[in-house]
Amino acid sequence: MGGRSGVLAPVLMVFEAVDALADVPVQFERVLAVAVGHAFHAGHQADAAHLADDRILGLQVAQTLGVHHGALAYLPGINALRASEAAAVRIEDYVDTLRGYRVLHLVGKGSKPATMPLTVPVLRVLEACRGQLDSGPLVLRPVSGEPIDRRDAYRMVARIAKAAQIPRHISPHSLRHAAITNALVAGVPLRDAQILARHADPRTTEHYDRARGNLDRHGVHFLTAYVAGV
User: Fold this and answer.
1) pLDDT tens profile 125-170
2) Which of 59, 78, 179, 205 has the fewest Cβ atoms within 10 Å of its own Cβ atom?
């Protein structure tokens, strides 16, 4: 914990704890609160007190929103999907297992195909969203049951923010931004974070790293430990 940002530490702790939770509504409530709260922080440079306040407010979100909103929190907030990518996910896209992992196949920006693993908490929420369906679009409009599009994704994330009583604008990109930033702060190497974000240029991913000047993460520490055989 010593190397973690004081602001991001509670965010990372909650994400780590999610794997131990068996109850989907509870994990949705907690992780959604953190995702929304941290997206607000990442986008507006709020301080730790703002983040804590937003987490508390977000605890009531799951009481008014459904599993489709949950999927739209997880797909950008953990798997860093863009709004159009999250809206386009179909149930058939995540039925495959590769090297022991359930994976999601998608076509991203520039028509580039990608495959990414689904962690247990994400898979649980997607399965709750799927319900009894075996095929077709995953995330549906809560009222009509019709497939969502990119604009629906923005509206649904805006509703998440409204339910959490966050006064400023957040979007699916805010959640994607939070996922990439969290990955870098958690110590994910830049190259791996670039793969998560699916950025063509690593310099784009580097812009998300708010700890670029953190001397605790300087490469000399890792190199010294490697040379010393630690």
Assistant:
1) 899 889 999 999 999 988 888 999 999 999 988 887 776 666 667 7
2) 59
Rg (CA), the chain: 18
Phi, psi of 83 (to 5 degrees): -55, -45
pLDDT band at 97 (very low <50, low <70, confident <90, very high): very high
Phi-psi sector, 122: left (phi>0), alpha (psi -120 to 50), beta = alpha
CATH of the domain at 107: 1.10.443.10
Residue 3, in any domain of the structure: no
For residue range 28-87, list pLDDT tens digits in order.
444 455 455 554 454 444 443 444 344 434 434 533 467 888 888 889 888 999 999 999
Whether the Cβ atoms of residue 51 and residue 38 lie closer than 8 Å to each other: yes
> Is 4 contained in some domain?
no
Specify the number of domains making up the chain: 1
Residues of the domain holding 45? 9-228
